[in-house]
Write a structure and sequence with these properties.
Layout: E1 3-8, E2 11-16, H1 39-49, E3 53-58, H2 64-74, H3 77-86, E4 88-93, H4 103-115, E5 123-127, E6 134-139, H5 146-157, H6 161-168, H7 173-198, H8 205-234, H9 239-264, H10 271-291
Parallel strand pairs: 3-4
Antiparallel strand pairs: 1-2, 3-5, 5-6
Helix pairs in contact: 7-8, 9-10
Length: 294
């Protein structure tokens, strides 16, 4: 597969030549990790799994921005791995070729378009597991990357009551209050970031810096919440396993932060830096896979 290097807010990213056709959207039923056109099945799956619902309003065969996001984000392995564990994926397509969408979904898609006030494509609406609570709205970005878009999605889904409650209720009372406080602060920080991004500020150096300040606020709170999750898991592991788990998590966080700092520095687009970016991503993928084994 041919890979390309592109700019991301003065940084870098790897792309793959994929199109919406690569997703092979389910026409009936819903499965974790797969796009589906069956909205009702997706609602039931989200309820059963306690996962947020990601609605992709798109014009798959004509919308340039939609194709860009498909190629840069949704076709990437990192997005696929994230989505499989964290979202129920629904594509609501408005193509020029009417045969791409089953007749039974066409009117329903128009109804959902009106219901959610969608006026342009692509528009991404994220619902809580109840299928009613709107967590947030996202759009396309010509400098999008899987990593960046995942962070944006995580900032929105951090407000999910279903996900917060399922974990928070399992905590000891002393940790539960801390978890709730941090969760409320994260919701506020995520909302602040979302409001600022949706205001479409001019692409200036100052706004680039402000974006990262707001993003860092969200990430700091996410890390604190993740620390609670880590402490909870560690209590269930023996001493050797706990030490190994903490070490892997520490390396993962350090590597992510190191790559983020490097991307912000605006490295030149050359073969050496392309190789370095590949190495960063491979290291992160390896560490993420190790974390999941515990």
């Amino acid at each position: 597969m041919k890979k390309l290097l592109a700019t991301i807010l003065f940084g870098m990213l790897l792309l793959s030549n994929f199109s919406r056709a690569a997703f092979d959207s389910l026409k009936k039923g819903a499965e974790l990790g797969k796009w589906t056109m069956d909205y009702e099945a997706a609602l039931q799956l989200a309820k059963d799994e306690g996962l947020p619902i990601f609605l992709d309003f798109t014009g798959s065969d004509w919308c340039g921005w939609c194709k860009l996001m498909d190629r840069k984000v949704f076709a990437q392995k990192k997005w696929a791995r994230f989505a499989e564990d964290n979202l129920v994926l629904v594509v609501l397509d408005f193509p020029r070729n009417s045969k791409l969408v089953p007749e039974k979904y066409k009117q329903r898609n128009l109804q959902l378009q009106r219901q959610f006030g969608v006026r342009g494509y692509p528009t991404y609406i994220i619902l809580d597991a109840d299928g009613k609570t709107r967590l947030g709205r996202l759009g396309a970005n010509r400098t999008a990357t899987p990593e960046g878009f995942i962070r944006d999605v995580q900032a929105v889904t951090a407000k999910s009551k279903a996900r917060m409650n399922s974990f928070g209720n399992l905590l000891p009372s002393d940790q539960r209050s801390e978890f709730r406080r941090l969760s409320d602060e994260l919701k506020a920080a995520a909302r602040k970031l979302e409001d600022w991004v949706t205001s479409e500020p001019p692409e200036t150096v100052d706004n680039f810096k402000k974006y990262y300040v707001l993003l860092d606020e969200v990430q700091k709170l996410k890390d604190q919440i993740e620390d609670i999750r880590i402490r909870q898991l560690v209590t269930k592991l023996d001493t050797e396993k706990a030490s190994e788990y903490l070490s892997v998590n520490s390396k993962l966080r350090e590597t992510r932060a190191e790559m983020e700092d490097w991307l912000r520095s605006g490295p030149e687009r050359n073969d050496a830096n392309q190789k370095k970016l590949v190495e960063y991503n491979e290291t992160i993928e390896r560490l993420e896979a190790q974390v999941k084994t515990f």
